[in-house]
Every structure is written in structure tokens, then in C-alpha cells.
Design a protein that fits this description.
One of its GO terms (molecular function) is hydrolase activity. The chain is of the alpha/beta class. Helix content is about 15%, strand content about 25%. The termini are close together.
Length: about 260
């Protein structure tokens, strides 16, 4: 398999002969802050960050290059740092609506239908085949206090590939441990900027959560993503390296935007 870090949680995955574009947030930099969201439903513990426009960095390559050759879009959940969202409630404006989109539930599917996507696939927890790749929806918990809506993880399996666990927007909790024990993944992608909101607590993993995954899955190589592009993050790539060094976690990759890794 080949993983290419695009930006934030956006990654291109080449797996078992198919190319999946994961959580395609493709907007230019500095287009959205928390104060721009109608009704301001979310608040960052540090109020200064509420006014910081995201994403912080431009895409490393053109949108056309990112979209070239993609067989499926994978959207783990509809949040504005995982897919482009318009004020009219539609999503995915830069995407090719003829490319199938894989999503987590019927509610998200309805949004994609409204947005003009022609083929929408709600991923099951029993698993679905996409050529030689099998994708299975697995649980995720998007918040330590109150989940910030539903989100999913995905297990990618194939006789041709190492098992890949896309944990998605989740914190460490018993279901993540169970996902690892059930599937024994050899590569695990973790969203780990420790982003937090007043209403929901910490939304995704921090260094302690990454350490917990490393302890539970010593056979796996960790792929650390969802870093350095959102205002409510509390950990950067730079600080994560120091934090994991203190915890003696070494078997991980933290790719730069635009960097590709093969497993």
C-alpha cells in the first residue's frame, strides 16, 4: 500500500489496486474560522484561536493532481475540516460527482445526494468489497465529553496487502482497542492533533492515546495525521515528536504534507 499525506486528515491511499481519497478537504488556506460558522455552535477553549482562519497551509500540489486517478472518495464524517462545505449545506464542491463516495450512514448519504454525487455507498459493519480490497466500518468516538456527532473508522483488508486501520476522528476508548484485537492491523493511521472544543472536550487523539495504541498494537506501524492545520488543535508535529520521545514511542511515521510512504 502507498499512503500520501495531503493536508490535515486528507490522504491518498493506494490499496489492492484501488485509489481512495480520504477526507478530501481541498479549499485554499485561510477561508474559515470558528466565528464564521453560522450561529457559532462551537467554541475553542482558547478564544484567540476562534478567530484563526483555517486551513493554515495550502495544498502541497494542485487539486487536479490530487483528484487524478481516484477510484473512490472516503468521507469518515461530514465536518468542515474533512470535506469542503458550503453555506447552502452542500459539500465536496471541488470533487468529481461521478466518482463514488463512501460514507458512514444514511444521514451523510442524504447530504451527498443533495450535493449532486451520483453514486453513494454507505459502508457496512459487515464489510464490503471494492475489487480486491475489503472495507469494514468500525466504531469511533469523536469526543471525550460529548461526541461531536458520529464518525467512523475503517479497516482495509486484502490478501494482497497489510491490514490498514484508518481510525478516523476518535479518541482512545475500548472500541478502538477491540478493533485492534479483532483485526490485528499492521498499519494504523491516527488523527492526533488533540483538537478540542468547549462543548465536546478533546475530539481526537493526543500523545497518551497514541501511546495506548502503540502498547496495544506493537506489531503495527503508526501513521500520524490530522496535524498542523486546524485552530482547535493543541499538538503539532513538532510537539508530538517530543511527547512521544518522552513516552518511548518510536515505531511511527509522521509524514509532511505531500510526502508518500509505502508499507
Amino acid at each position: 500500500m502507498k499512503l500520501t499525506q495531503i493536508r490535515n486528515a486528507t490522504n491518498r491511499l493506494e490499496f489492492a489496486g484501488k485509489t481512495f481519497l480520504i477526507d478530501p478537504w481541498l479549499s485554499p488556506k485561510h477561508v474559515l474560522s470558528f466565528v464564521d460558522i453560522p450561529g457559532m455552535p462551537f467554541h475553542v477553549p482558547d478564544p484567540v484561536k476562534e478567530n484563526m482562519a483555517m486551513p493554515f497551509y495550502d495544498l502541497p500540489v494542485s487539486v487536479e493532481e490530487i483528484l487524478q486517478g481516484v477510484d473512490y472518495y472516503v468521507v469518515t464524517h461530514i465536518h468542515p475540516d474533512h470535506i469542503d462545505m458550503a453555506m447552502d449545506g452542500t459539500v465536496g464542491a471541488p470533487l468529481d460527482k461521478d466518482v463514488p463516495v463512501i460514507c458512514q450512514n444514511e444521514e451523510d448519504a442524504a447530504v451527498f445526494e443533495k450535493s449532486g454525487f451520483k453514486k453513494i455507498i454507505v459502508l457496512s459493519r459487515e464489510g464490503m468489497d471494492f475489487g480486491a480490497a475489503r472495507l469494514t466500518q468500525v466504531p469511533a468516538r469523536h469526543g471525550t465529553v460529548v461526541p461531536c456527532g458520529e464518525a467512523m473508522g475503517i479497516m482495509f483488508t486484502s490478501p494482497k496487502e497489510k491490514t490498514f486501520y484508518l481510525a478516523g476522528d476518535t479518541v482512545w476508548y475500548p472500541e478502538v482497542q477491540e478493533n485492534i484485537r479483532k483485526f490485528s492491523p499492521e498499519v494504523i493511521a491516527l488523527n492526533c492533533s488533540a483538537a478540542e472544543l468547549v462543548e465536546n472536550g478533546r475530539l481526537i487523539m493526543n500523545d497518551e492515546d497514541v501511546w495506548s495504541v502503540a502498547m496495544e498494537a506493537p506489531q503495527a506501524r503508526l501513521y500520524l495525521t490530522h496535524l498542523d492545520n486546524v485552530a482547535h488543535a493543541t499538538i503539532t508535529r513538532h510537539t508530538m515528536r517530543s511527547l512521544l520521545m518522552a513516552r518511548h514511542v518510536e515505531d511511527y511515521d509522521m509524514p509532511a504534507d505531500g510526502e508518500s510512504l509505502c508499507y
